[in-house]
Predict the 3D structure of the following.
Amino acid sequence: MTASARESDRPRFDWLLALAVVAMLATFVRVAYFTPVEARQGLAQKIFYLHVPTAFIALYVAFAIVGLTSAMYLWLRDERLDRIAASAAEVGVVYMAVVLLTGPMWAKPIWGTWWTWDARLTLTLFAWFVFLGYLILRGAIEDESTRSRYSAVLGILGTLLVPFIHLSVYLFRTLHPMPILLKPSRPSLPNDMLLTFGMAFVALTLLFVALIRIRYRLAVTLDALGHEEAAEEARVGTLRPHPIR
Amino acid sequence: MIVRTPPGILAAAALIARKDLAIEFRTRSAFLAALTFSLVAIAIFYFAWDATAVGAVDLAPGVLWVIFTFSGLLGLHRSFGVEEADRAIDALLASPIDREAVFLGKAFANLAFVLGVQAVAIPAVALFYNLPLTRVLLPLTAIAVLAAIGLVSVGTLFSAMASNTRLAELLLPVLALPFFVPIVMPAAQVTARLLQGRPISEAMSWLRILIAFDIVFVVACALAFPFTLED
């Protein structure tokens, strides 16, 4: 191993993660102390600033990244695309878990129930299942190229599946509030709250990118380790007993 | 010397389907297992609800399609599982036929398997749940075929993938079940409307979802299949 490679192995200061953490802290302070309390829902509404941006990033951004990089991987066969898809899926699962946890916390005081089989809740739950399946599939395959190909296939099919689940669950009636920001007319949110929401959105996006970057680096290290072990094995013969297939 | 030309895609698919069905017909292991499973499950489901509170007619559609899904998975496991022994899959891939034909052949065999189980399970549900089967037989058969096409296309692809992983048959339900949501929901909704004697026009949106799913996923899975085989 060369000196420069050793140099890059040393943990570096992750400025992006630091920035994301600072942004998150600032957002929490603003949500807690500098944003007006909503008239009808009271303090419970504050969870909106975490729940809604997280849901948007998890359901749209993470899924779009996985679908797109998966399709491009099958075309270009660039392992970097596979690593981005894997990283986005893993961070997406965490974000979706946050959505699925904060949702019931908000629903209990406002709707009077922890869970309801409303269209958007159901959609999020099933999208989460697809992502979990994706990660389990990755964990079950040792060969790198097989793993990349299989997960790319699942990533593409999963992206195709979401509109179908969306259609199916919307044929059932929905309790969930209709969008108040992403609609043709002006967002129906007071300026104070809109600013807080914007801040939360930026902070959570920064965190999302920072986490993907960390996970991506981990994938690079793990792959390199795998290659080194394979090379070592080829040089001195079998290092570990191979599992019987 | 006899020069043989490789068969066309449909002829090759038919050959592979015939091979799989011959294996299944001679061993009958998976088919009997799936059939028995269906009958046992139909009987057990009846006691899972309070029969005095929920009418059998309201229960039947859910029971029918949940059992359809799980018995289908039993058959799909074997689809590529049988090729693992002695690496039979290598011989299949070395043969001069398109990968898409392998997929179609496997899918045809699985379709016959799933519909075969359904041919017994649907009358059994009608018998045990006291359903007016003769009145709804034709539309119900059509829905069973539509649902089976969707289930088999996704299931065949995932069976090929799952058989190549460390988790093998454990992985198939984890991967496939979320994909069966847009199959089971419309099928159960349409069946419920049929059994209540409502006109089919009331369930058209559900039927459209089911048909669209079939079209999109048959094409997508056939195109994606070659990527699961490489080397």
Notes: Residues 25 and 203 of chain A are 9 Å apart (CA to CA).
